[in-house]
Amino acid sequence: MSSKPSWSPSSWTSKPVAQDVEYPDRKGLSKVLSKLETLPPLVTPSEIERLRYQLSLVQRNEAFLLHAGDCAESFDACTNENISAKIGLILSFSLILIWGARLPIVRIGRIAGQYAKPRSSRTEQVGDREVLSFRGDNVNGLDIDDRTPDPERLLRAYFHSATTLNHVRGLLTSGFASLHQPRDWSLSHVRSPSLRNEFESIVEDLTDALDFSRTIGQDAGASFELGGAKSTVGEVDFYTSHEGLMLDYEQALTRECPVPKSVSSVPNEKAYYNTSAHFLWIGDRTRQLDGGHVEYFRGIKNPIGIKVGPSMQSDELVRLLDIVNSEKVPGRVTLITRYGAGKVENYLLEHIKAVKLSLHPVVWICDPMHGNTLTSNTGLKTRHFRTIINELTSCIRIHSECDSRLGGVSLEFTGELNDEGFSVTECLGGSMELSEEQLGLRYQSFCDPRLNFEQSLDVAFLISKHYKDERRGKQKGMEKDVLFTELSGKPSS
Ligand code: PEP
Ligand code: CO
Which family does it belong to (predicted)? Predict the structure, then answer.
């Protein structure tokens, strides 16, 4: 048997690195990285292992994964209002899912570190100037005079991640997530009466269920919510994630730690954990088998995601799984498929078949956002709600036809509101029927367009209803366009 090539947190440096950032200030970079190496971890091995375990439950259809947040966070958006709105939306979304699917939800935010972006082109033309592309707040600035990669930004990314995570932890341990007060997550600005009514009726049913269980002397809230994972209603599990793009940064936050006893069969076992986030994913542009990112990812013990787009070959996918999960550990790999509504039919089936044959345990989730981006007539980047739902619907159906199961969704959404309490206008359609003319009203993303609060709840209700019907035996699998037809009465073209 061939042994595994040796690995270290820096072994990736001997491989070609896609989307690499060139820092003119090399000395500054080394100084920053040395500092990062001494800073405390942001997350712990026991939290990381707990997530891996919960993902193994997703894989066994005993839980559902919600992976969601911004395309890219920015330092300026690190405010109480934005973070609370994001967590509130994730909690509202998961509550709706729990109600329909009656499964615990594993929540992973694209938060507390999602500051770097891959770009299709190294430079961009702005007027008559060719400037370096904006690569995210931890590399350079959006302002065209601030495009030189600045290593100090990596430190700022660390501290903004720490502040964000601290606030999230604070919110979740001080009653914000309490299932007894879900109204606090603020639906006040949702103008659609039907959305509000539906949400409020779930909340009412849930409150009744909790009252009932209290009356009979058993607070069933926790086990209902989390599969018994936590003992108090009001505390929920929440995990952080970002794309593991900036390998210098990831390496500096990679620490050799004792493996928690609960998951270790060997005395004094140690392993390398990336302590900058619970979950990291490899982007569709950086998943080359012989590249630096795959090399780095194969050695960390965190659960990881792999974006799978139309250019992924089936045998390549299996080889990739062999590399990053040679021991076939359940919960270790989540495949995040993002083909585009028009392409999912051509690719997903083959990918599922190949992975099944390989006997690799994986969680499959659908990212219906990244294959469905288009430029509107006004020149703004957008996505149509209908196309998003179409890809999701096809995914659920194809999995069901292959005796596989969609384990979750990966969405770009935001609960952000402007000063007057209006949500963003970046994606078209949904129950609010956002039109092209309205896109410019409150377009705030400096990266990909995100679903707003109402559009996100629309998605949550559609998924929730599907699983509720399935639970009640109304439908096995899902006919094409059922989700969409239910929402608007007409299938998309
Ligand atoms: C993303 O998730 O923001 C992203 C860039 O995705 P992908 O790598 O799938 O294009
Ligand atoms: Co994106």
Answer: Belongs to the class-II DAHP synthase family.
pLDDT, residue 216, reads: 56
Residue-wise pLDDT tens digits, 429-474: 998 889 999 999 999 998 999 999 999 999 999 999 899 888 888 6
Residue 228 has pLDDT above 80, yes or no: no
Q: Calculate how far, in angstroms, residue 55's C-alpha sits from the geometric centre of ligand 1.
A: 21
Q: Which of 460, 418, 367 minimizes the C-alpha distance to 98?
A: 460
Ligand 1 contact via 307 beta carbon (within 6 Å): yes
pTM of the predicted model as reported, rounded to 2 decimal places: 0.91
Q: Cα separations (Å) of 135 from 116, 118, 145?
A: 6, 7, 14
* CA 340 to ligand 2 centroid distance, Å: 13
> Measured from the CA of 114, which atom of ligand 1 is nearest?
3
Residue 213's pLDDT is 63
Decide if 164 contacts 112 (C-beta within 8 A): yes
